[in-house]
């Protein structure tokens, strides 16, 4: 199979998707290797934004592309930050800024009402005008902690409590996160599609 461009500027995603694909006969190259700039994520769904990103990378490189649009859905916040997870605390917000805002918004909310889930939509497009993009979705249930714990992973991992492991996703060994995560589940579906 030819090289696939990974349409993301997020190094944490590049690392996880590369680890997950290491066992497959699929070579992915991050879009930064082709100087693909970020594109405005103007959609209101993960699916729309993933298509926007995959189409943009495919158009600029002339190669097939995979994009990942993901985020955190918190029940006590009516689903926020959702598709706006990366810009929750503002356009140029860091992961830490976003976490501070999230914990602030959840102040006083008891443990049993801090339920949340990560979503990951992966889109594969053969070329920029592909009329049938492959769309895969994975989700991962957890709870938002009261403070940051753990150094692994990225984004909201330090405040995402995984009941089954009794750890935050930033405390999980990388292979365990990859096994359980929204991204791991979406990628397992995509790999099945390539195997067809
Ligand atoms: O759009 P690209 O370039 O792919 O990179 P991004 O970081 O902007 O990615 P998104 O637009 O998909 O926003 C995803 C947000 O959700 C967070 N997120 C996604 N997956 C995560 C994970 O596995 N662990 C922690 N946070 C995650 C991430 O930190 C971002 O704030
Ligand atoms: Mg983004």
Automatic annotation (TrEMBL):
It catalyses: ITP + H2O = IMP + diphosphate + H(+); XTP + H2O = XMP + diphosphate + H(+); dITP + H2O = dIMP + diphosphate + H(+). GO terms for cellular component: cytosol. GO terms for biological process: nucleotide metabolic process; purine nucleoside triphosphate catabolic process. Its EC number is 3.6.1.66. Binds 1 Mg(2+) ion per subunit. It is an enzyme of class 3 (hydrolase). Mg(2+) binds at residue 69. Homodimer. Belongs to the HAM1 NTPase family. This is dITP/XTP pyrophosphatase. The lineage of its organism: Bacteria, Pseudomonadati, Pseudomonadota, Gammaproteobacteria, Alteromonadales.
């Amino acid at each position: 199979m030819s090289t696939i461009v990974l349409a993301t500027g997020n190094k944490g995603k590049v690392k996880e998707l590369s680890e997950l694909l290491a066992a497959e006969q699929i070579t992915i190259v991050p879009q930064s290797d082709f100087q693909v700039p970020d594109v405005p994520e103007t959609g209101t769904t993960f699916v729309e934004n993933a298509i926007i990103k995959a189409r943009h990378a495919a158009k600029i490189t002339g190669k097939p592309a995979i994009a990942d649009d993901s985020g955190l859905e918190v029940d006590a916040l009516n689903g926020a930050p959702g598709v706006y997870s990366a810009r929750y605390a503002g356009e140029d917000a860091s992961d830490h800024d976003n976490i501070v805002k999230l914990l602030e918004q959840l102040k006083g909310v008891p443990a049993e009402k801090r339920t949340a889930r990560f979503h990951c939509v992966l889109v594969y497009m053969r070329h920029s005008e592909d009329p049938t993009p492959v769309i895969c979705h994975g989700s991962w249930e957890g709870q938002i902690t009261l403070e940051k714990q753990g150094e692994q992973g990225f984004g909201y991992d330090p405040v995402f409590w995984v009941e089954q492991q009794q750890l935050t996703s930033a405390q999980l060994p990388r292979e365990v996160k990859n096994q359980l995560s929204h991204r791991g589940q979406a990628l397992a579906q995509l790999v099945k599609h390539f195997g067809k």
